[in-house]
Each structure stands twice: as structure tokens, then as C-alpha cells.
Design a protein that fits this description.
9 strands; single chain; four-stranded antiparallel beta sheet; five-stranded antiparallel beta sheet; Jelly Rolls; 206 residues
């Protein structure tokens, strides 16, 4: 299991000074944890316009992040937010010496509501981003949807998201049945979570 301290930015909202006099008290700290989850899109296309859907159990992803960082269920989640996103090509298979343009949208499927754009990509060279993590330009509407899903998770909901790649163009030549486009790429979501925890029997000199 990964070492929690190595993976976390730890903010202690108290300073403990050991003196000659004092007593033992319980102290409350807040921990800022930054970690990521991801979605993989497997693409096979014979035209330049396509939509690729992928469903993500966002609640399970957050629970896995907490488990990986040894966060106890007894600790209290204060807040969570999306801080950044990245994308990159994982595997190039056929017809991949091209550039693609389009957007990735996100929609809640556990509750009703419209899809919102989260990542716009323009003239992305598939071989140029192979094994790379490219910082994405985020759309405010998609970020707001993901942040609300995180807030709902803290309140006890289990948000389910559907991401969709909505590609609009392929250059310099569109794929065809004879020359299809086949590749796999990934979108990473970087999430910050603030956890409140209680430490028992901390020395208080005052």
C-alpha cells in the first residue's frame, strides 16, 4: 500500500509545542490530499465524426483514492474539487499518423441533467501525445458538474458519470473502411480532497 505521507500534501492547522507543563488533549487536523483517477477510451473508426461513451462510477473512484492513501472511514470529508485534467495516447494501432479535433463531455446518469463539455482538444497529433500527459484546457461548465458530483458524494450520494468523446475532424485525411483509425487514449482527472481527522492524546503545554 502506498505511503500516505509520500502522496499527500499535509497541512496541520495546529502547532504542538512540548513544554514542562500541560496536558493531553484531542486535536483536530485537516489533511489536503491530491490524487487522480482516469478513464480510457478505445477508438476504432472509419469516419472523422464519432462519439465514444464511457461510464465511470465516480463514487467508487473517490473511495479507491481514499483507500489507496490509507484514509480511515472514521475521518470526515470536508470538501473536494477537480483541480486539473490531462490527456494522452496510450496505444497507436492503425492509421494513427493523423491529428484529431473535438471535445469530451460529461453527464450525470445517477440524476437527470444535460451533458456539459469538460475538455476541448484541437489538432491533437496522436503520435505527438503518445505516452504523454498533456494538460487540458477545462471548460467551466464541466468542472462545475464534476465539483457538484464530488459535493454530492460527500453528502452520501454515489455519482455516476458518462464521459463522451465527440470527435469533429481528422486531418490530413479522414479514416475509411480501407484505412481505419484505431488507438487508445486516456483522460486523467486530478482531484483534491480535504479530510478532517482527530488525533488523540496530543500534548498541550497551555
Amino acid at each position: 500500500m502506498r505511503n500516505m505521507i509520500a502522496r499527500m500534501g499535509l497541512i496541520l492547522l495546529l502547532t504542538v509545542v512540548v513544554g514542562a507543563n500541560g496536558c493531553l488533549e484531542d486535536k483536530v487536523i485537516q489533511i489536503v490530499l491530491t490524487d487522480e483517477t482516469f478513464v480510457d477510451f478505445t477508438e476504432f473508426h472509419t469516419s472523422a465524426n464519432w462519439t465514444t461513451p464511457l461510464t465511470l462510477n465516480y463514487g467508487d473512484s473517490i473511495r479507491q483514492i481514499l483507500e489507496d492513501n490509507e484514509i480511515s472511514e472514521e475521518d470526515s470529508l470536508v470538501s473536494a474539487r477537480l483541480v486539473s485534467a490531462f490527456y494522452g495516447t496510450l496505444e497507436l494501432i492503425r492509421g494513427t499518423d493523423r491529428e484529431i479535433s473535438g471535445q469530451i463531455t460529461v453527464q450525470r446518469t445517477d440524476i437527470s441533467g444535460p451533458a456539459q463539455p469538460i475538455i476541448d482538444y484541437s489538432s491533437v497529433s496522436l503520435p505527438g501525445v503518445l505516452n504523454q500527459k498533456i494538460l487540458a484546457d477545462l471548460n467551466a461548465a464541466g468542472v462545475a458538474l464534476l465539483d457538484q458530483a464530488l459535493a454530492d458524494f460527500i453528502d452520501g450520494a454515489n455519482p455516476i458519470l458518462e464521459f463522451r468523446v465527440e470527435n469533429g475532424s481528422v486531418t490530413p485525411t479522414p479514416p475509411t473502411v480501407q484505412d481505419p483509425l484505431e488507438f487508445t487514449w486516456r483522460a486523467w482527472l486530478n482531484i483534491q480532497v480535504i479530510i478532517q481527522s482527530e488525533i488523540e492524546d496530543v500534548w498541550d503545554p497551555f
